[in-house]
Design goal:
heterodimer; A: mainly alpha; Cytochrome C Oxidase, Chain A; Cytochrome Bc1 Complex, Chain D, domain 2; two-stranded antiparallel ribbon; 4 strands; 63% helix; B: mainly alpha; 3 domains; two-stranded antiparallel sheet; 2 strands
């Protein structure tokens, strides 16, 4: 048969590998920074960009979209070419993809530090960057499908199924969740409000884990693990079943992030049961990986690449078992809002994504430079540093999360809460210290790896275009005897794309559409009114400073939470919240009913020096709020945008809103003056106080009958 | 063979029994959840015990294999040593289990006195539990070391066997093969699908049965879950669960209060003058009230509590009421959900005890002059102007 000669493009792979190393270190150091801030708040230095609320999105975005994102592209660009026996479709597209993605990362970091955020976790980036992401993602898709279409292999391998599902689902999630109405170049409001916004956001958030951190990495596992072990994949039929089951079931599980919240019960239950059903499909991937190593375990002892891959796959198995357990309501009642969740995600992030990436790097770099690894010993050192780092990171946090939840829930026999919130925080500070040490050790491992890889690169010579040869795409596909039905779709990438889209669209549609259309899902409360202009400005400051990253605004229907914070939260309270601010972690107490709890002067002093009002608090100070002026210029635009989104401000209120803002600000400044606190009414702190004093107040004015009606509807 | 089987199973069963008995009377959950450390330590102890059980089984298994081999090769001279090791492992595991049962019961006793000490746990309990954990870790390390020693011998033997390559090696873990429906590696060619992607071949092994049935079970669980919560409605949804827990909480509280003679209210509260009895109140004041009133009571956001002027009345009953119900519109919150009646009574007396302490940087007087009913000495150092205002109000 005629054999064709062609070249693999290694240059793009190399660039993505460099990006992985650089952004990995940056993202992890940002993580270490905020881990230390949790017990040493002065580290924020009174400087806005280095406070926890702004650094935390920088950390999450950097490790997810920069470190793992570039890791995905590195692995896909390497494996896809070899699995298709073809060079990437277009070198130009590869180049645009690479530089476009890096540009997105840089602008993401800069805007997040500047406080530009949409206020939705893991989707913080503002609308121009969202559009850029969509464009670059489409270019990546064209490049990927172009390569698949001009392939020389008759069938597409399981790794590519995962790449296809990843591509189509991430596109869907990103577009639906990023629907927002811009009011300026770097400020927009989510189109959805309250409960609906929460549902869409966690449908996105959960599946960002599924389709950005999991499925592409499973694809990488299916290529790099059998290659490194030189063993056949354990079971083809397991691949088929676990692939389709995984992508179909995963998409439903989002509501498990909202158990016991104001989300309708039926949606919560769907989240729980689909999470439980997800155990087997997830473990299918782990088993197919680990069983592939059957007969090659002696190699695992020798080969650093395999060591990393084995721990990665094992961590994947642990995290995907723990996840469904955390979706059970009685476990979630303890784990949610605590550090338990943080520990859980880091088993996945440090173990699965981190170790998989390291394994792939140790595999690729020597190949790309046509040499061998500089030092196996250093790689082993890295392996142990990483493993110990994960253990030291996770165990203290599990401990902290469990302890704190138990302290929150403890009552004295007299029926009082036994612990003040602050006591439960100061109690777990030693665990926070231990966690940061674990993280530092893990990063030390990454530094060792970087050194090792640089040395490896130094002793090899880069092969930019790797020569390869293969028979052309067969004109006629021969089948011998019985063939799997699934082989049909493996010859048809476009059908694969469509079927994957159908599989992932069902779950989201069934959960999201009724929540938007059926009115009884979100019963309204007549006393809930739109925010005043000053409160709206204050709310945007709240979002800008990332307050939602440490403070929830969602009181769950538990005895302890009702005793601590007040009446549990109702769906109808959030209908004007674009975006919702329920939060997912309680490093500080819940703020849903903060309004009226303390005088204005308390908030004034507390934001300036939190420790003066609550000794031992780990909240940073916000000195710039006392210097910067409210940007009243934006108020009319904000009112206009909110009306567009369905908030009932009267027509023409844009012209009057700033007068109202001024009036309310003066009132607050006067009250502060009464307590001998001099502040000009146009300062940002005044707007923030206005917002904080509004929180949760509306429902208190509700006629009793109406809240009762709400109760019966809820039931 | 069956003899060997018995020899392996018996010690293992003993170890397991030990573990089980530990489950039965051992890590007794602390009476209330107020002690998460004890709970967590107990969970860790049990988990480690399970690990020890499994490791002990492996060590015994590998040791017997070694014993068997040595018997075949050299007779019994070395075998005795190995047998003794095995005995030691089995015994130590059992001893350890008993040891733990004892320490757990000690813990239960220590539990009652956990009010002070480390992390809400009494020091004895803390160190006892801690040392059990350490002991377990040491045992695990020792077992791992033994396992490694035995396996090193095994590995050499296996390598030799492979080099020999005449007889296919007998599967070492046949239950593992069985439970996963493994096809033996040497028959792998039968299930090779002939796929080749960049050198990656694919086998077509059967789905591991436990995995498949596990999947079915999860789906059945999902069905039952949805049926119970949303069709039959035999399980409580969030709000019902909330009502149940509230009712339960109220009932527990009522039952306790009935017995505890804790029913102080604004009508029955009396001034406590014993300084020692006010120590707990001092602590509460300095951590909670100090935010607004400062630690000395001189006032900052809230009013000065050391002078003769009171916004909401200065009698014991009034102060008690102010703390209990608060004056929310003026910024004083209600503390009745945070502190018990006894605590509020102590706080009231503590606040009263601050009177006349003349702390530095006092806040200007607010409200009306209050003169103690019994003795009028409180007004001694007040200015005439102020007293005229107060007399006007009176």
């Amino acid at each position: 048969m005629q054999v064709e000669k062609f070249y693999y493009d290694n240059k793009t792979v190399k660039w993505f590998a460099y990006a992985v190393l650089v952004w990995g270190l940056v993202g992890m150091l940002a993580g270490l920074w905020i881990a230390i801030e949790m017990y040493y708040p002065p580290l924020s230095m009174g400087f806005a960009p280095t406070t926890f609320g702004r650094m935390r999105p920088v950390h999450t975005n950097a490790v997810i979209f920069a470190f793992v994102g570039n890791g995905i592209f590195m692995g896909v660009y390497y494996s896809l070419q070899r699995l298709c026996k073809a060079r990437m479709f277009s070198d130009t597209l590869s180049k645009i993809h690479f530089w476009g993605w890096q540009l997105i990362i840089v602008s993401a970091a800069l805007t997040l530090w500047a406080g530009c955020t949409s206020g939705k976790e893991y989707a913080e980036l503002e609308w121009p960057i969202d559009i850029a992401i969509a464009l670059v993602w489409v270019l990546f898709g064209i490049n990927m499908f172009g390569t698949i279409i001009k392939r020389r292999e008759s069938h597409i391998y399981v790794a590519i199924w995962f790449y296809i599902a990843t591509w189509v689902t991430v596109a869907m999630l990103h577009i639906v969740n990023s629907m927002e109405l811009p009011i300026s170049f770097l400020k927009s409001y989510s189109m959805y409000a309250g409960v609906q916004d929460a549902l869409v956001q966690w449908w996105y958030g959960h599946n960002a884990v599924a389709f950005f951190l999991t499925t592409p990495y499973l694809g990488l596992m299916y290529y790099f693990l059998p290659k490194a072990a030189n063993r056949p994949v354990y079971s083809y039929r397991l691949s088929i079943i676990h692939f389709w089951a995984l992508i179909f079931i995963y998409i439903w599980a989002g509501p498990h992030h909202l158990l016991y919240t104001a989300l309708p019960d039926w949606a919560q239950s769907l989240g729980t049961v689909f999470s439980i059903m997800l155990i087997a499909p997830s473990w299918g991937g782990m088993l197919n990986g680990l069983f592939t190593l059957r007969g090659a375990w002696d190699k695992v002892r020798e080969e650093p690449v395999l060591k990393f891959l084995v721990v990665a796959v094992t961590c994947y198995g642990m995290a995907t078992f723990e996840g469904p357990m955390l979706s059970l309501k009685n476990v979630n009642a303890i784990s949610h809002f605590t550090d338990w969740t943080i520990a859980h995600v880091h088993i996945g992030a440090l173990g699965w994504n981190g170790f998989m990436t390291f394994g792939v790097l140790y595999f690729l770099i020597p190949k790309l430079w046509n040499t061998s690894l500089y030092s196996k010993k250093l790689a082993n050192t890295h392996f142990w540093l990483g493993t110990i780092g994960i253990v030291l990171y996770a165990i203290p946090l599990y401990w902290a999360g469990f302890t704190q939840a138990m302290m929150w829930k403890t009552f004295t026999p007299e029926g009082q809460l036994k612990f003040q919130f602050l006591e439960t925080v100061t109690h777990i500070l030693p665990m926070y210290i231990a966690r940061s040490i674990g993280g530092a050790i893990y990063i030390a491992g990454v530094v060792v790896m970087t050194y090792n890889l640089i040395k490896t690169i130094g002793k090899g010579s880069f092969v930019a275009d790797e020569a390869a040869e293969a028979a052309p795409f067969p004109a006629e596909i021969k089948t011998h005897g019985n063939e799997y039905w699934h082989r049909w779709i493996e010859r048809r990438p476009m059908q694969m794309l469509v079927f994957s889209l159908v599989a992932v669209a069902i779950g989201g549609a069934i959960e999201i559409i009724p929540t938007f259309l059926v009115k009884s899902n979100i019963p309204t409360i007549s006393s809930v009114k739109p925010y005043t202009p000053l409160e709206l400005q204050g709310r945007d400051i709240y979002i800008r400073e990332g307050c939602y990253l440490c403070h929830s605004q969602m009181i769950r229907p538990f005895r302890d939470e009702v005793a601590r914070y007040g009446e549990y939260s109702k769906a109808g309270e959030f209908i004007y919240d674009h975006p919702f601010q329920w939060g997912s972690k309680r490093t500080g107490p819940d703020l849903a009913r903060l309004g009226g709890k303390y005088p204005d002067s308390w908030h004034y002093n507390h934001m300036q020096d939190p420790q003066s009002m609550s000794p031992g608090s780990i909240m940073p100070a916000y000195p710039w709020l006392y210097e910067d002026d409210i940007n009243a210029f934006t108020t009319p635009k904000k009112i206009w945008a909110m009306r567009k989104l369905g908030v009932p401000y009267p027509e023409g209120y844009e012209d009057k809103c700033n007068a109202d803002l001024q009036k309310q600000a003066n009132e607050i400044a006067d009250r502060l003056k009464g307590d001998k606190l001099e502040i000009k009414p146009q300062k940002e702190i005044v707007a923030l106080i206005a917002y904080l004093q509004r929180l949760g107040k509306d429902i208190k004015a509700a006629p009793k009958q109406e809240t009762e009606k709400q109760l019966t509807i809820d039931n | 063979m069956s003899n060997l089987f018995k020899k392996i199973v018996l010690p293992f069963a003993l170890v397991l029994l030990g573990t089980l008995s530990a489950f039965a009377d051992g890590p007794k959950p602390p009476s209330s959840l107020s002690n998460p450390f004890v709970t967590l330590l107990a969970i860790i102890i049990v988990l480690l015990a399970v690990v020890i059980g499994i490791l002990a089984k492996l060590v015994i298994g590998s040791a017997f294999l070694k014993l068997q081999k040595e018997k075949n090769e050299k007779g019994n001279s070395k075998g005795i040593v190995t047998f003794l090791t095995i005995l030691f492992v089995g015994l130590s595991a059992n001893l350890f289990a008993q040891d733990k049962a004892v320490s757990d019961s000690t813990t239960a006793v220590a539990d009652k006195a956990f009010a002070t000490g480390l992390a809400g746990v009494s020091e004895t309990a803390y160190y006892l539990l801690g040392s059990v954990v350490v002991l377990e870790v040491v045992i695990i390390a020792a077992l791992l070391f033994m396992l490694k020693a035995f396996l090193a011998v095994e590995k050499k033997a296996v390598v030799a066997e492979i080099a020999d390559a005449s007889v296919p090696a007998k599967p070492q873990y046949d239950w593992w093969e069985k439970v996963n429906s493994f096809k033996p590696i040497h028959q792998e060619a039968d299930i090779d699908l002939g796929h080749n992607y960049d050198g990656i071949r694919e086998l077509d092994n059967r789905l591991p049965p436990w995995w498949l049935y596990g999947f079915y079970l999860c789906i059945i669980f999902a069905g039952i879950y949805l049926y119970r919560y949303h069709v039959a409605q035999t399980a409580p949804l969030s709000k019902e669960e909330f009502e149940i827990s509230m009712a339960q909480g109220e009932a527990e509280k009522a039952a306790y209060l009935e017995k505890a003679a804790n029913n102080i209210d604004e009508n029955t509260v009396k001034l406590i003058t014993d300084k020692a009895a006010l120590e707990p109140a001092k602590k509460i004041f300095e951590t909670t009230c100090a935010a607004c009133h400062t630690a000395t009571g001189a006032g900052n956001v809230g009013p000065n509590l050391t002078d003769d002027y009171w916004l909401h009345g200065g009698s014991v009953k009034d102060v008690f009421k102010t703390i209990k119900y608060g004056w929310p519109d003026k910024g004083m919150k209600s503390w009745k959900d945070d502190f018990s009646p006894v605590q509020i009574a102590q706080l009231t007396s503590y606040v009263k005890s601050l009177h006349g302490t003349n702390p530095p940087n006092p806040k200007a007087p607010q409200g009306t002059l209050y003169v103690e009913e019994a003795a009028g000495k409180a007004t001694a150092d007040s200015t005439k102007k102020d007293s005229s205002i107060s007399s006007l109000k009176k």
